[in-house]
Design goal:
The strands form 2 sheets. Strands 5, 6, 7, 8, 9 and 10 form a 6-stranded antiparallel β-sheet that branches. This protein folds into 2 domains: 2-116, ATP-grasp fold, A domain (Dna Ligase, domain 1, 2-Layer Sandwich); 122-235, D-amino Acid Aminotransferase, Chain A, domain 1 (2-Layer Sandwich). The protein has 8 helices and 10 strands. By secondary structure, the chain is of the alpha+beta class. It is globular and about 50 Å long. Helix 3 (47-57) packs across helix 4 (86-103) and helix 6 (162-171) crosses helix 8 (189-205). It starts with a helix and ends with a strand.
């Protein structure tokens, strides 16, 4: 399988850097190889590079600090959303760097990632972890801050069938938010099930990945798809 070969080569390149946790743009590149829809994210080392990438990706864009020492980028005020001009990008780059210096002065900062902006939608989380007893296990639940507040999640062993992915979705209490309530249109549950199933396949076929967290995944209205807006991947020890 060409995708598996490419993913393994990508993982080897990360291990060669003596790192186990991928940066966000690296995690997004990896899952996109596997066919999981995600926002484009490219690394800019300086403000000129950020402006150039913003032109290529097209406005509006999002800037996020890129550092192996910073997991929760919003905690250090390292995220700027909805930037619509070159001036916005320049100011955002400078603000992010100043915020990081103030909040995490010893962090190894590589630059920023410039990412395409997508409008907000219903948020869910799709993840996986290698359980010591059961092996690769896939998780699904409400996304964003709600995953920590509501604890509304379901689990399945990997790999999953299509029916298994759909069952995971229907088992959470927040399912009604996806089927449409109070006149709201239903979400694209089929596109969401596709992401869940692909995460399960990736977990089963590439055991080098021991943890993955796609949070949030934006699920648009029926027929309009779903997309991973943020991604975190951790590799196992050799």
């Amino acid at each position: 399988m060409a995708a598996k070969k490419s993913v393994l080569e990508f993982i080897s390149s990360i291990k060669a850097k003596k790192r186990r946790e991928l940066l966000e743009f690296e995690a997004k590149n990896l899952i996109s190889i596997w066919g999981i829809h995600t926002t484009r994210a490219e690394l800019a080392h300086d403000v000129q590079g950020a402006v150039k990438l913003a032109r290529e990706i097209k406005y509006p864009v999002v800037l996020k600090v890129a550092s192996p020492d910073i997991i929760h980028k919003s905690d250090v005020r390292g995220v700027k959303v909805g930037l619509s001009s070159e001036l916005d990008v320049k100011h955002a780059f400078e603000e992010i760097m100043a915020n990081v210096r103030a909040n995490k002065p010893n962090a190894n900062v590589l630059g920023v990632t410039v990412q395409e902006y997508v409008p907000p939608a219903r948020e869910v989380v799709v993840g996986m972890v290698h359980d010591k007893t059961f092996g690769p296990t896939v998780m699904f639940g409400l996304g964003g801050v709600w995953v920590d507040v509501m604890k509304d999640i379901s689990f399945r062993l990997a790999p999953l069938t299509r029916d298994g992915a759909l069952e995971m979705i229907s088992e959470v209490k927040g399912y009604l938010l996806l089927t449409g309530t109070r006149g709201a249109p239903p979400a694209d549950i089929e596109a969401l099930a596709d992401i869940i199933q692909k995460v399960g396949q990736l977990a089963a076929e590439v055991p080098e990945i021991v943890e993955m967290d796609l949070n949030p995944v934006f699920v648009f209205d029926k027929g309009k798809g779903a997309i991973a807006v943020d991604a975190r991947i951790v590799l196992g020890e050799d």
